[in-house]
């Protein structure tokens, strides 16, 4: 059991996380409002995306729909798209906050926040209509035809239907897989990778995204990982410099250029870290 001061600190940390998540959610709503009324631009951008996909030799999303045109399968895909994406991310962050080491959770949270923020910038700069809005191109809006739909009721008021690129469904699913691979046990990493694969298939099968929407989301995750690692390296460098300065002030160092063996160097701080529970020894620390 935690003592009272520890409980207060834990509660304060939880409130901070709730504020951060609420701020991110409101930023998403602002991004949606910023591109309302840009349907013509979003449809024009869809033509650009399909031209790019043809140039890259990517298969047609409509052909996948025709290949897997089974009502039960499409209903399952609609259900997965509608009810798994956001609740799973909330559950994942809550699990990380409660069960994982603090440094792992903060790294994962920052990674997802940077990825999501970058995605929202692209949503506003490049509004894009999804395939389901183009029945003349052979696409079927499976949620409208078979249900359930992610755009009914309150969710329809919040969702940005012209924010196809990048796909946050794919982006968040791949982010979870990457985080678990870096920090969690192998069986859980396999399940997370399966979720990412199913999500990519689902967003295409339901005609909610183009192939390139997922590619861009994964590229943003790579960028977010690089930025968070750079930030961690700089923080480690500052911590090492402060530690060395304190040691010199105590007179434990003969000179400014000498660091005793007991002190951790900058390169060690960047390369190493405490091994979190369940992390196989061969995996690098976030």
User: Could you spell the SSE succession in H and E letters?
Assistant: HHHHHHHHHHHH
Main beta-sheet annotation = none
Structural class determined from secondary elements: mainly alpha
**Outline, from the CA principal axes?**
elongated
Oligomer: single chain
What's the number of structural domains?
A: 1
The radius of gyration over CA amounts to: 23 Å
User: Unreliable stretches, pLDDT < 50, 5 or more residues?
Assistant: 258-278
Task: Assign a percent range to the helix content.
Answer: 55-70%
Mean pLDDT: 85
How much of the sequence is in beta strands?
A: under 5%
Number of helices: 12
Tell me the total number of β-strands: 0
Q: How far is the N terminus from the C terminus?
A: 29 Å
Report on the architecture of this protein.
The protein is mostly helical and about 290 residues long. It has one domain (about 5-235). It is built from 12 helices and no strands. It has helices spanning about 5-35, 40-55, 60-65, 70-85, 85-100, 100-125, 140-145, 155-160, 170-185, 185-205, 210-250, 265-270. Helix 1 runs parallel beside helix 6, helix 6 packs across helix 11 (about 210-250) and helix 9 crosses helix 11. The longest helix has about 40 residues, at about 210-250. The model is unreliable at about 260-280 (pLDDT under 50).
Quick gist of this model?
With 286 residues, the chain is mainly alpha-helical. It has helices at 4-34, 39-56, 61-67, 71-83, 85-99, 102-125, 142-145, 153-158, 168-183, 186-205, 211-249, 266-271. The chain has one domain (4-235).
Q: Keywords, please?
A:
0% strand; 70% helix; 286 residues; mainly alpha; 12 helices
């Amino acid at each position: 059991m935690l003592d009272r001061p520890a409980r207060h600190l834990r509660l304060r940390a939880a409130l901070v996380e709730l504020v951060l998540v609420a701020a991110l959610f409101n930023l998403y709503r602002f991004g949606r409002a910023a591109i309302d009324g840009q349907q013509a631009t979003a449809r024009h951008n869809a033509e650009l995306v399909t031209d790019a996909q043809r140039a890259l030799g990517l298969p047609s999303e409509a052909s996948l729909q025709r290949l897997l045109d089974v009502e039960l399968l499409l209903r399952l895909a609609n259900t997965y798209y509608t009810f798994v994406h956001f609740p799973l991310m909330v559950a994942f962050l809550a699990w990380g906050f409660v069960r994982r080491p603090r440094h792992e959770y903060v790294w994962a949270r920052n990674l997802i926040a940077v990825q999501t923020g970058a995605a929202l910038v692209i949503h506003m700069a490049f509004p894009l209509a999804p395939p389901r809005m183009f029945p003349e191109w052979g696409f079927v809006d499976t949620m409208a035809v078979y249900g359930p739909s992610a755009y009914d009721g309150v969710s329809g008021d919040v969702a940005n239907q012209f924010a196809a690129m990048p796909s946050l469904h794919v982006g968040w699913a791949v982010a979870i897989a990457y985080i678990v691979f870096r920090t969690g046990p192998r069986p859980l990493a396999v399940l997370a990778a399966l979720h990412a694969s199913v999500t990519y298939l689902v967003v295409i099968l339901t005609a909610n995204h183009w192939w390139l929407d997922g590619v861009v989301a994964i590229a943003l995750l790579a960028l977010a990982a690089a930025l968070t690692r750079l930030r961690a390296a700089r923080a480690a460098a500052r911590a090492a410099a402060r530690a060395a300065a304190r040691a010199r002030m105590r007179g434990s160092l003969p000179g400014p250029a000498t660091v005793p063996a007991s002190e951790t160097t900058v390169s060690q701080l960047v390369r190493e870290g405490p091994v979190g529970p369940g992390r196989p020894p061969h995996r690098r620390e976030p």
